[in-house]
Amino acid sequence: MSQYDFDLFVIGGGSGGVRAGRIAASHGARVAVAEEYRYGGTCVIRGCVPKKLLVYGSEFSHAFKDAAGFGWSVGESRFDWTAMIAAKDKEIGRLEKIYRGLFENAGAKTFDGRATLKDAHTVLINDKPVTAGTILIATGGHPVKPSIPGAELMITSNEAFHLKEMPKRIIVIGGGYIACEFAGIFNGFGAKVTQLYRGEQILRGFDHDVRSHLAGELVKSGIDLKLKTDVTRIEKVAGGLLAHLTDGSSMEVDAVMAATGRKPNTDGLGLEAVGVETDADGAVVVDEYSRSSVENIYAVGDVTNRINLTPVAIREGHAFADTVFGNKPRKADHNDVPAAVFSQPSVGTVGLSEEDARKAYGEVDIYRTIFRPMKATLSGRDERILMKLVVDAKTDRVVGAHMVGHEAGEIIQGIAIAIKAKATKADFDATVGIHPTAAEEFVTLREKGKA
Ligand code: NDP
Asked: How confident is the model over 303-339, as pLDDT tens digits?
């Protein structure tokens, strides 16, 4: 019998923590988890899942407009924010129970409360000590706001999911995933949306064609995208909020949403006292096996600020559990991780951008197409899809695939398998297209550098 209460104590019941706990239990470990809020973590409670439900909800407005070109007379449509939020909350409640159940069915003990570290083998939950051989920090992250006067008047994605009323006029600050996604959500629901980005172009780090193409499509969809513009100060006024912008203008709106990045949840966990090293952003510093600077303390997911995506956290948690409790040491693979931005239209991407591929491989071949989707011929929607392949000229290997357009995430998921399998451009060419689809363009791109 071990000298500790548990073999593994997981702090945080999100995607990474739940997977790690379940797998460790399946390897025979005695597992406990502490969650201070709701099981499921950012993804299930206030991230990917509720966001995607809102995206689905907001896309109907486009469908109603498109229907006319196909012979439909769509009557007056009205949107009820309260009903949408209630339906979303019901689904999140259902998923939360499933997440908690996953732990309990695996035989793990759940503690509802905040856990902090007392020493390398002891956590305190509501001042009660519990000991464990191994501790896993899976506490995720939280949104951060810019520090400007009136910042307390801003909302973040956390609050956006629970607003009593839908803002009719909103400023969304940021050019990353969350800003592009929420600008699309509120725009689809009929709000007047202004998206402000401080830099030259949104989605820094993505392929340059993706960035400019998405920006153009967002503007066409009705979002007022202002680049090289930021908010300097916000004040309350009779009609709502008055936001002062860097260009000297000001705008009255009902809400200002900061989508300006996220930070790891490490404050007040007791890491410093125990000797767990964190970086300048507060992220737990870990090795490839997710082990921290303290031998028996590990960390996975957003708290480590590696690739902040749910499926990555899950894989980190799984690899950790196999390594430490399954006698199968293995690292989570952080290469060629596909991702999607659920903007409207969406972005799907895997592998390297053209710029990164040039740095990595020198000579690259670019295959690119911009076309009008078939549905837009009758709907009349002014919409263009971008697809792009980046190929290492020396080996013919496809090292990057990018798309801006409807269901880009669904399409790129399949392409990601080919890229992971190191497919060449010749393999893409040898693949027969499915006609008529947008996706078939990925296997019919023949001319280098042609738009
Ligand atoms: P991102 O890091 O993606 O984007 C933050 C944006 O805010 C950037 O455009 C950044 O500009 C800007 N910004 C940062 N600080 C300020 C400031 N002080 N004033 C004005 N603008 C500022 O963060 P998100 O919050 O959008 O998302 C966090 C992470 O969560 C993502 O990177 C992703 O890993 C994950 N995520 C994934 C999703 C998905 O898979 N679909 C969905 C949502 C989140 P600059 O570029 O100049 O730094």
From this structure: 999 999 999 999 999 999 999 999 999 999 999 999 9
**Residue-averaged pLDDT of the chain:** 97
Select from 54, 178, 341 the residue to mutate for testing ligand 1; criterion: most ligand atoms less than 8 Å from CB. Answer: 178
**Nearest CA among 149, 153, 152, 205 for reference residue 180:** 205
**Rounded-to-10 torsion of CA 63, 65, 69, 70:** 40
Q: Would the CB of 341 count as within 6 Å of ligand 1? A: yes
For residues 194 and 54, state if they share a domain.
Answer: no
Is the minimum distance from the CB of 146 to ligand 1 under 6 angstroms? yes
Domain of 373, in residue numbers? 339-443
User: Nearest C-alpha to atom 35 of ligand 1 is from which residue?
Assistant: 308
Q: What is the dihedral of CA 27, 30, 34, 38, to 10 degrees?
A: 50
At 339, is the secondary structure helix, strand, or coil?
A: strand
Does residue 346 have its Cβ closer than 6 Å to ligand 1?
A: no
For residue 69, the domain's CATH number is 3.50.50.60
In a domain, 254, yes or no: yes
| Residue 266, number of CB atoms within 10 A of its CB | 23
pLDDT, one tens digit per residue, over 428-438 is 999 999 999 99
421 and 370 within one domain: yes
| CB 339 less than 6 A from any atom of ligand 1 | yes
Active site amino acids = 435
Mutating to test ligand 1, I would choose from 54, 142, 177 the residue with most ligand atoms within 8 A of its C-beta, which is 177
Q: Helices 208-220 and 354-361: crossing angle, nearest 10°? A: 180
Instruction: Let me know whether 303 and 375 are in one domain.
Output: no
pLDDT digit string (tens) for 254-284?
Answer: 999 999 999 999 999 999 999 999 999 999 9
Examine the fold and report which residue of 241, 260, 279 is the final residue of a domain before the chain moves on: 260
Name the β-bridge partners of 348. 340, 403
Return the pLDDT at 451: 47
Q: How many CB atoms lie within 10 A of CB 123?
A: 26
Same domain for 133 and 86: yes
172 touches ligand 1 (CB under 6 Å) = no
Residues 6+ apart with CB under 8 A from 312: 301, 306, 332, 334, 337
